[in-house]
């Protein structure tokens, strides 16, 4: 133990990765113990940790004193021994990539010589992400001191700066989709939508990964090899965030975050963040906060049930996880208060709806996939100024306006929040209160973005959500929007244009462009005919 403890007193000169004397001492100690020995050395040349493993490898513990943050490299190099003269292994390179060490080196003895062999590798701004130096006698090694590592980190920064704008303050993300079953096209379509969600949240998308394994990894969802690729790409591109297209369990978020030291969120969390930014009315804010708290509650994790005071009995007495339980209790109390407030708001909406029903004015609700143009259509029909933007979930709050038809006929037309695939259950549950407006509708105006290649999938998604809300029995009028964008498609892709025309006939849909008021005449005539068929 004493020779191992004395290793902490050693210092390494700034211009070398390890001194020759220290390298020989490590090899001698390792051979006498028949175990691998490793040193973690910082850029000041101090030994910060001595590691003793077994004959096959080392276990590197967590390094809370050397967090990565936004740095490209950790500021630690690993110098360790191999007992059989082998070069760096895949496990060594995995540690280099996942921990983002300054460099990693393997020392091994040479029979009949006091000079050990060294095999060294470091991260590099190349497609492979790693530079491997050939195994050589230690005395031939030149450079790889602290100054060389600082220069390497600058090269990585320059490579990053050439590809991204690191000074605009935006989060920079890599998108990931992992599906055990399904087609690649389906995964790509879903990732395209996730990229649009990221753009709505003001996140810059740097790259995307798709993995279709036979079996999902229960700990990290994706395979370890693919996760290493993600870490290297994150290093090369300067990513600060990983966004998974699939919903992650709390344990998976912690595992992936611990391995990559990047912020990790899933599709549900991204949607919740967008809703939190976009909600403006009291209804919307209450619903979003309620959904966020319901999402957060099961993700409050401490030391486990065995340390909880609520468990009782032997081992359950004493302070336990008091702070965690207080947080949980506060969240539950806040959820109860928000649900009560939501009920009060719901009663107010019910009174307003009752007045509209008593007035005998027909009610039309516009439903559809997010970014189909619902708010734009409401503005065009009623000459309103509801907020619109070419983003997913640009508007969350329900808006109702009177629409005057020919011969002094009037209807009330209502805009609702857009639907999306994989809408979080907590969010759908919270917004059921807002979507109560749909229950009193005499007609659902199902707006479809005809210019979207996935418009038929979107129709199915909207109808599935309506069925879940028990609204599938409502009369429905399908309206194909954004037909102004189809003229270019007619020239470029005739087959796609014909497919849209066939779908329009199949759904018995009306074609419009919400940005061109002249195209709305057939829709207005259809609405008049639906409610006043005997009118001239």
CATH topology title of the largest domain: Rossmann fold
**Number of H/I helices:** 16
The major sheet is characterized as: 7 strands, mixed
Mean pLDDT across every amino acid position: 82
- At CATH level 2, the architecture of the largest domain is 3-Layer(aba) Sandwich
Residue runs with pLDDT of under 50 for 5 or more positions? 302-321
- Based on CA atoms alone, the radius of gyration comes out at 31 Å
- How much of the sequence is in beta strands? 15-25%
Overall shape: elongated
Number of strands: 17
Distance between the amino and carboxyl termini: 101 Å
How many structural domains? 4
CATH level 4 superfamily of the largest domain: P-loop containing nucleotide triphosphate hydrolases
CATH class of the largest domain: Alpha Beta
Structural class: alpha/beta
Give the helix proportion (percent range): 40-55%
Main location: cytoplasm
Function: GTPase that associates with the 50S ribosomal subunit and may have a role during protein synthesis or ribosome biogenesis.
Subcellular location: Cytoplasm
Protein name: GTPase HflX
């Amino acid at each position: 133990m004493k020779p191992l403890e004395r290793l902490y007193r050693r210092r390494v000169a700034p211009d070398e990765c390890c001194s020759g004397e220290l390298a020989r001492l490590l090899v001698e100690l390792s051979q006498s113990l028949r175990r691998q020995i490793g040193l973690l050395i910082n850029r000041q040349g101090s030994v910060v940790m001595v590691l003793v493993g077994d004959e096959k490898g080392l276990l590197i513990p967590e390094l809370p004193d050397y967090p990565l943050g936004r740095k490209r490299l950790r500021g630690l190099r690993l110098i360790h021994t191999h007992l059989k003269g082998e070069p760096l292994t895949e496990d060594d390179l995995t540690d280099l990539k996942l921990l983002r060490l300054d460099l990693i080196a393997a020392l091994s003895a040479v029979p009949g010589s006091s000079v050990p062999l060294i095999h060294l590798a470091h991260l590099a701004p190349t497609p492979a992400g790693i530079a491997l130096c050939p195994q050589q006698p230690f005395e031939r090694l030149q450079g790889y001191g602290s100054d060389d590592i600082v220069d390497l980190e600058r090269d990585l920064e320059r490579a990053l700066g050439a590809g991204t704008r690191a000074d605009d303050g935006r989060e920079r993300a890599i998108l990931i989709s992992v599906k055990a079953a399904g087609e690649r096209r389906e995964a790509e379509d879903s990732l395209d939508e996730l990229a649009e969600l990221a753009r709505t949240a003001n996140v810059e998308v740097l790259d995307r990964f798709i993995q279709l394994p036979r079996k999902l990894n229960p700990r990290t969802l994706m395979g370890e090899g693919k996760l290493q690729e993600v870490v290297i790409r994150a290093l090369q591109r300067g990513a600060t965030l990983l966004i998974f297209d699939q919903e992650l369990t709390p344990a998976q978020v912690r595992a992936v975050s611990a391995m990559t030291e990047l912020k990790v969120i899933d599709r549900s969390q991204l949607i919740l963040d967008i809703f939190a930014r976009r909600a403006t009315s009291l209804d919307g804010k209450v619903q979003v906060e309620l959904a966020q708290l319901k999402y957060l509650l099961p993700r409050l994790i401490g030391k486990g049930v065995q340390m909880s005071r609520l468990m009782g009995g032997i081992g359950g007495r004493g302070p336990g996880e008091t702070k965690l339980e207080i947080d949980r209790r506060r969240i539950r109390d806040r959820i109860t208060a928000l649900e009560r407030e939501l009920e009060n708001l719901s009663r107010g909406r019910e009174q307003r709806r009752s007045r509209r029903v008593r007035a005998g004015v027909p009610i039309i609700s516009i439903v559809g996939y997010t970014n189909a143009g619902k708010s734009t259509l409401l503005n065009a029909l009623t000459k309103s100024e509801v907020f619109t933007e070419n983003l997913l979930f640009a508007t969350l709050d329900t808006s109702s306006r009177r629409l005057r038809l020919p011969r002094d006929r009037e209807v009330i037309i209502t805009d609702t929040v857009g639907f999306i695939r994989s809408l979080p259950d907590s969010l759908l549950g919270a917004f059921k209160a807002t979507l109560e407006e749909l229950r009193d509708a005499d007609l659902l105006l199902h707006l479809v973005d005809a210019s979207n290649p996935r418009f038929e999938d979107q129709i199915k998604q909207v109808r599935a959500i309506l069925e879940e809300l028990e609204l599938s029995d409502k009369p429905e009028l399908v309206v194909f929007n954004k037909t102004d964008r189809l003229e270019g498609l007619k020239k470029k892709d005739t087959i796609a244009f014909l497919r849209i025309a066939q779908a329009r006939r199949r759904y018995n849909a009306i074609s419009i462009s919400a940005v061109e008021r002249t195209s709305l005449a057939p829709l207005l005539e259809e609405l008049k005919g639906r409610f006043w068929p005997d009118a001239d």
